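User: For my dataset I need records formatted as: sequence, then structure tokens, nothing else. Please produce one.
Assistant:
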Amino acid sequence: MNYASKLLENAVEEIAQLPGIGRKTALRLALHLLRSEKDDALRLSQSISRLVSEVVYCKKCKNISDTPICDICRNPSRDGDVLCIVEDIRDVMAIENTEQYRGKYHILGGLISPMDGIGPSDLNIESLIQRIAEENIREIIFAIGATTEGDTTAFYIYKKLADKNVVISSIARGISVGDDLQYADEITLGRSISQRIPYEKSLGRS
């Protein structure tokens, strides 16, 4: 494509790196920014710059945060005895939207997937084991999608906790097999949290 400006071409190239955005969409967005008020475009630029440079990961749960310890972990009204184990940050957002859960979280940062070269050491599993010991956690809830990778990951953690004095439960199967939590509606996801079952009873259920 012949661009009238090298600066425009560079902007299109960068925007097109975003997931789900092709070059035509990237060009349309870049031209929209050029037509917008300059202050609007600068605010967007500044927001992205601050996002990249200032957002950190919570030292406890690995959620994104503006401070070393996130708001959920610092909130004294949350039940610190219960940890909800999720795959990524989007799952925390989905569960929080249900307003059915008042415990805390631990984000794994992915799922065990040998085909993709992702093993237990690539995830936040050891920090989870450490948290359970240090914070005297009494229950963990597996809120992981009903996929092969999700079941493999949950079972691995379950075996690692076999000698720990902790109740292990799993969200009820309101979530369809093969689905990701982030795509579940809030009512279904909320009921799955509130009607969770002992993890042992979930083995071999799908």
